[in-house]
Amino acid sequence: MVDALKKNPSFKPRKGPVFLLILDGVGFGKYEDGDAFRQARTPNFDWLWNNCPHTTLKAHGTAVGLPSDADMGNSEVGHNAIGCGRVFAQGAKLVEEAIRSGAMFEGATWKKLVKNAVDNNGTLHFIGLFSDGNVHSHIDHLKAMLEQAKKEGVKRARVHTLLDGRDVGETSALEYIDPFEDFLASLNADGVDYRIASGGGRMFITMDRYGANWDMVKRGWETHVLGEGRQFLSAHEAIETLRKETGAIDQDLPSFVIAENGKPVGTIEDGDSVIFFNFRGDRALEMTAAFEEDDFPYFERKRRPKVEYAGMMEYDGDKHVPRQYLVSPPSIDRTVGEFLAASGITQLAISETQKFGHVTYFYNGNRTGKFNEELEDYIEIPSDVVPFEWRPWMKCAEITDVILDAFAKNKYRYIRANFANGDMVGHTGVFEAVICAMEAIDIQLGRIIKAVKEAGGILIVTADHGNSDDMYEHDKSGKLKTNEQGKPKAKTSHSLNPVPCIIYDPDYQGDYDTTLREGLGISSLGATVMELLGFIPPEDYDPSVVEVKK
Ligand SMILES: O=C(O)[C@H](O)COP(=O)(O)O
Ligand SMILES: [Mn+2]
Ligand SMILES: [Mn+2]
User: Is the CATH number 3.40.50.1980 carried by domain 17-89+331-536?
Assistant: First the structure.
């Protein structure tokens, strides 16, 4: 447990709470075309921006612990940075390094899984997100593991491909599948038999999160493990056929099983080894539970093979899930939540299901538990289980209802919330729906501004990364890309754009400079929250955006 924070005698805490509002996926776009945030009518946000101290914060690449500045931000690294006030080398980088240095293949887990497959004359399976998005996974990690498996004598490997279209181009699956088939062909000599065995869109099978829709995981289990589902001769054929039939973009494509003479080529059997090759945990935890849990109430597994199972990383540092993993996760410690709990601060964390773990699990450094049961409340508003372009307002009003009630009762000193709209609707690629999402959020901002003023609190409006600000694809020269119909090509992934940081402090006492520091990243929000609660942040925290008089 960390020590309590020292109080700053020259800062008089306000009457009401400090409220950190994370507008998930809302940044400042580079292009006018496709910037739904800029084009939406947002009078309340505009009022805040025009009347309150503000700055922009970096939310991508090295500023959030990713390998390079070409990497867009994402919720995991974003909330980790916001919640721990510093930048840690993140999963994408740690796995890359473990492969480059060879440490992954010297580790006990890799050795055990390979030995298990070899000794049992079994199969080494890989399940994961099949792209180079570098948010949950990277295809290069998969390729490196297959090459190494061959070197170490694994004769049979099967790959279960979750098609992306969400962190990469919306219909880019074949750009990964086709070269990968060539890559597998190059390995398939000397009695080696490596193949794709199954697949489907990541939002249709396997990669649910936070218990929002267990049916997705059930369909994934049937596809990867049991080999049940529509059969095709190849992944290429499956994708082309399913696209024609459904018109779905990659993330939503139905599942498929690769079969020969009516027999699936890669069901998962007793004695096999399974690697879930995503390094990010939120969307890996449910399938991991299906493999690991004896007591599993979510769906009927029908058959649960006895396998050696490992994740790419430890996904939950509190519960130690999965039991085996290949690379140690970032050692995120001394988080804002832990310091505030040690300092006796009452806290509310709230969001809807889709982002609930973001303001709890990710914010607390990939731990599910609370630091102090008495001081902390975590509230989840159930998300809709429909395509979000049909309900772009999502649950921002219901979340605001709870927050306003907390304000009225002055129940907490620190509140943090996440509005999912900019991101979840942004990922659909439906521009008009994103405009509606932005305007829905803005209506709630109006209610919040009023409540903060009445309570005498401080509101910090920010985001974890961009998305809604960049809804159309542009080429390298900045030219708008168009589809076959001549319409702008939708972009479903996050952006590289900076995010807002606004401080609304209606009872401002002159105790900090209203010109905020420039050039910082979202990790600076950790110290900012602490300073605005009247504490002196730990020395190794990244600087706060406010310069508080000491
Ligand atoms: O998991 C997802 O939905 C996307 O890959 C990334 O979105 P998030 O980082 O905002 O959750
Ligand atoms: Mn996010
Ligand atoms: Mn997202």
Answer: no
